[in-house]
Design goal:
Structural class: alpha+beta
Strand order of the largest sheet: 2-1-4-3
Distance between the termini: 35 Å
Mean pLDDT: 82
Strand content: 25-35%
Radius of gyration: 15 Å
Low-confidence stretches: none
Oligomer: single chain
């Protein structure tokens, strides 16, 4: 573990600020939106996003280039309705700042696990009707 800070490991609730732009620090596509999830509960193991975040602590920052076609696989169940990002430019930069890491309660874990089997719920206006 790093310097007594909470570290991202399975079953921790992770809160990020996520932005996206045409440059590594750009925010013209998404301007610092919160993203919260329970780390390590996916049916198929860790997502590529989780692998990038594993072992990191509060305050750390990550920026990487993604191609439009990678969005769904990169986020997996964590971003249940990635339509906005899939409709971005052919490639763009995702920037994430780790805002908070907490131990998730058993109830939160169970609720999050059940949500990995459904899409966004169909109420986000994306047209996916609850399916990725």
């Amino acid at each position: 573990m790093k310097s007594g800070k909470e570290t991202i490991v399975p079953l921790k609730r992770v809160m990020l600020k996520l932005s996206a732009g045409k440059t590594p620090v750009g925010k013209e596509l998404i301007n610092a939106e919160p993203l919260e999830f329970i780390f390590g509960i996916g049916r198929e193991g860790l997502t590529p996003l989780e692998r990038r975040l594993a072992g990191k602590t509060v305050g750390e920052y990550l920026s990487l280039e993604l191609y439009n076609r990678q969005v769904t696989d990169f986020f997996g169940h964590i971003l249940p309705c990635p339509v906005a990002l899939r409709n971005c430019h052919p490639s763009f930069y995702i920037s994430m700042k780790i805002e908070q890491i907490e131990t998730a309660s058993a109830r939160e874990v169970v609720r999050a696990m059940s949500q990995t089997t459904t899409g966004c719920g169909g109420d986000c206006g994306c047209g996916c009707a609850g399916h990725n």
